[in-house]
Amino acid sequence: MTAQTLVTATPAQVPVRRRRRFLGRGGEDRSSWGTTLTLVVCTLAVFLPLYATLTMAFKTTTQSVDGQVFSLPSPFSVDGFVQAWELTNFPRGFAISVFVTAVTVVGTVLLASFAAYAIARNWDHRFFRWSFFYLLAAMFLPFPVLALSQVKLTGMVGLANPVGVALLHVMFQLSFSVLLFTAFIRGLPEELEESARLDGATTWVVFRRIVFPMMAPMSATVAIFAFLASWNDFMMPSLITADSTLQTLPVLQSVFQTQFSSNYNVAFASYLMAMAPAIIVYLFTQRWVMSGVTQGAIK
Amino acid sequence: MVTAAPTRPAGRDVAAPLQTRTDRPRISRTFYLFLLPTLVLFTLSITLPAIMGITLSFTDSAGFGEFQFTGLTNYVALFSDPAIRSSYLFTIGFALVTVLLVNVVAFLLAVGLTAKIRAKVALRAVFVLPMVISGIVIAYVFNFLFSNSVPQLGQAVGITALEQSLLANPDLAWVTIVIVTAWQAIPSALLIYIAGILSIPAEVYEAASMDGASPLRRLVSITLPLVAGYVVINLVIGFKNFLNAYDIIVGLTNGGPGTATRSVAMTIFTGFTGGDYAYQMANATIFFLIAVVLAVVQLRLTRGRNAF
Predict the structure, then answer these.
(1) CB A214 within 8 A of CB A189
(2) Which domain CATH number covers B275?
(3) Model-wide pTM > 0.90
(4) Contact A185, A114 (CB under 8 A)
(5) Which of A116, A117, B111, B169 could disulfide-link to A182, CB 3.0 to 4.6 Å?
(6) What is A88-252's CATH number, 1.10.3720.10, 3.40.630.10, 3.40.50.1980, 2.40.30.20?
(7) A261: confidence class by pLDDT, cuts 50, 70, 90
């Protein structure tokens, strides 16, 4: 709760301080333009690779190999997208990415919020307290450490497929998410839950009707991090999924490193289609993405 | 309700919601049902592979069939294996350089983005954007830029070192990995620094500027010491993450030229194909111990801020 208030307080805090400083030292108005301009120039470092992707994607194959990466497309062409669509079997890759990501997001939010509620409300009970530290221990275990045995085990139980990838994505998101949820629930007043119980509500009803709705801001943060981690992941699907026709979008992009390596417009169109969904989601959820990072680090 | 409360039996055999948590005799079974599925799945997919991996690291398993326990043979061999040594040296060196670069740039950007500037919200949104882009995909984009645009630039301005693709240069290929990793990792460090700088009370700056402290002096004497805790968090989290470098390296150099940029993660994954499955399990175990040490350091450093 403390981090939550800290983050939501931030936007309001800024104008106040700005005015105070302005009153204190009126002469600094000019320097703000200098800083602004410097930062605008720095945004080139972010935009250049993205601009290159965008402009290359809309070129014809002939223009894409002329060496002028940053020139504008002329003529404007969507051939790259058409070919990339067929070459990577985009609809299938997209569907699998959406499936893996959706299962990861829903699975992470549900499992982590259930577990965190049980832990936070029974903290003085040893079993729940130890479970918390047990789940947290996964933060010590990066995927490369477990990869060899996980690949073997998923293969043995028939999970060398997107279902297995989604399951592992959920498991690797758990410790971070349980940590965030537990801290959040501890900040929620218990009176509401207690009065609901007096009215005869079961633990499940209390969770569903009172606690889960109140956790919505934290669920949004957890969901977005699960989304980004799952949508963008390359390491796990590339190692876990045995059948290459069941690969997610990031893994499918490797096709342009071997074959078709001179059809740059096709490759870049494909890269663009793979990154676009995450960028679009980011545009709508910036606030949660930004506050989530801070909460994760400061909690 | 008021009349119902006194008639409630106070006996310990009834789950009484009115009782405080400390003397609640029984925990609702729903709480166990909430926690158990997670514990079971977690144990099967994280704990079991971890135990299996550590056990197999003491054997001569090839990943299938019969195997025998060979004690510390794998570990002894690891310490004298030049390929392992070079992958650790590369990974640790890369992580150190990257974590320094990321933190210097992120800190300066955070100072700029919390100063009195125009278009603050839009600028912040732009600088955070790289965080949401897939590492492997942006690495492919940079791969193209490093092998086409950068050599062109090198020819145009006459820097001979840049005229050949950096990716093909065994001594400099690591620089490309640092650049792309930093490009993607700066946003999260930046956001943490912004939170840190915003937590400094404005009064401190006012007092300093009344005493005639220059902006640079205020940065060095106020901002830097007051966000020191955030610097430490960023250094530890960043270093820990960069040790796992994989996606971006695959997209840029795939460990090459030769094995010049092969990270520890990539070396471990050779256990799938190279027949030295148990050997790489031992490697992964060592890598795990390093991760544990770093995690303990991280927990110690952040414990003061933690609710638990």
Answers:
(1) no
(2) 1.10.3720.10
(3) no
(4) no
(5) A116
(6) 1.10.3720.10
(7) low
Looking at the domain assignment, is residue B220 inside a domain? yes
Look at residues A213, A209, A218 and name the one whose alpha carbon lies nearest to residue A183: A218
Question: pLDDT by residue (tens digit) across B234-251?
Answer: 898 899 899 999 999 999
**CA-nearest residue of chain B to A133?**
B308
Residues of A in contact with B63 (CB under 8 A): 148, 152
For A170, the closest chain B residue by CA position comes to: B42
CB contact under 8 A, B45 and A167: yes
Are the Cβ atoms of B126 and A13 closer than 8 angstroms?
A: no
In angstroms, the CA A47 to CA A31 distance is: 25
Rounded Cα–Cα distance for residues B53 and B50 (Å): 5
Nearest Cβ partner of B117 from A35, A168, A198?
A35
**Residue B48 and residue B52: Cα distance in Å, rounded?**
6
Burial A176-195 (b: 16+ CB within 10 A, else e): bbbbbbbbbbbebeeeebee
Tokens of B114: 């919390």
Separation CA A224–CA A146 (nearest Å): 25
Q: How many Cβ pairs closer than 8 A exist between chain A and B?
A: 303
